[in-house]
Amino acid sequence: SRKIVIKIGSNTLSNDDGTINKEFLDRLSSQVNDLMKLGKQIVIVSSGARIAGVSTIGRWLRKEDIHYKQALCAIGQVELMDAYRREFEKHDIHIGQLLLTRDDFSYGSRTLNIRNTLFTLVDEGVIPIINENDTVCVEEIKIGDNDTLAALTANLWNADLLILFSDIDGVYNKNPKVYADAKFLEIVTDPVELLKNIEIGETNGFGTGGIATKIEAAKTVNSYGIPMILANGKKENILANLINGNERATVFLPK
Ligand code: ADP
Fold this sequence. Notes:
The structure is a single chain. 42% of the residues lie in helices and 17% in strands. The protein is α/β, with parallel strands linked by helices. The strands form two sheets. It has an eight-stranded mixed beta sheet with strand order 3-4-2-1-5-9-10-8, sandwiched between helices. Strands 6-7 form a two-stranded antiparallel sheet. α5 links the parallel β3 and β4. α3 crosses α4, α6 runs parallel beside α8 and α7 runs antiparallel to α8. It is globular.
């Protein structure tokens, strides 16, 4: 696979105390650098703005207030990009920020613009870092979770592979954090059937999508012929190991 979209979940990106996990970003940037040297092209979809906002101002009041949430995202997005920029700078890689909404994928001219910007950034050797534009999105027009955003991005960019990094090494028949006997699923060829047959458990503290949106994302990209891998982003050398098939992960293969 030459064109790879990597999605990074909030839980992968943050430490237990809610601060941005700089060690993770350090490892990610050097792995991405290695892949680029091999001629791969990378686009990143990153969550974590809200949690970064909370840890920046040190409080999360009015949890039910949408504007408070949006304010947290506005604060955290800057911190997030700053952290990415610092890590990628070490490898002389520039980054570019794209904040998107559902509308951006629904109107021809806007979609085409984004597509062209994406291609241009990648051609220039820049890593696009995409997130939902939370400050302009009210609930009704939201994509809502970055698993879906990553899938839409993979289709838009005609990616060869979508990788979702979570804090879990793949899909199980039930939540492994609750059931010790949960069975790991290595290969999935029918995400729709899978959704009917497994138990969907709780998401993590700052996770928004959970396992269901990850399976939906697989359905979206698989229908465009793009395979998807769900893996644990915190493992050492995960990108190289995944690409060489040396790591446990769930692979969603298009039919
Ligand atoms: P992220 O922030 O990486 O997007 P989420 O918290 O949204 O992650 O979703 C991943 C979590 O979903 C896992 O950590 C796991 O606890 C939970 N989960 C629930 N049911 C399942 C299942 N059947 N298989 C795997 N994980 C599950």
